[in-house]
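Dear Dr. H.,

I hope your travels went smoothly. While you were away I took the liberty of generating a structure for the chain from your last submission, since the lab meeting agenda had it listed for discussion. I wanted you to have the full record in hand beforehand rather than looking at slides cold. The sequence, exactly as received, is reproduced here:
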Amino acid sequence: MNKTLVVKIELPEDIAMLIENDEIIRDAIKSHITKEVIKKIILIAIADSILKDKGLTEEEVMKIDKIIKKDIRSKIENEIELA
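The corresponding predicted structure, in token form, is as follows:
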């Protein structure tokens, strides 16, 4: 069974109006966001399971989290510089 979740986001007014007034665009955005959220939640659940199995402390998990986010940020910045 599915449950509806309402999330508010801020967008430029012209984009927000387009989404509000065009059912096809609105449905496409809902579908895309739903798929992305599901993928992210699955990845988080897998990572959480792995970390629990390894017996890491919360502090160790936070340290790993910071390292991963730093690496991701660096890769994105490098891609932007190359573009």
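Two observations you may find useful: Residues 24 and 30 are 10 Å apart (CA to CA). The chain has a mean pLDDT of 84.

With kind regards,
E. W.
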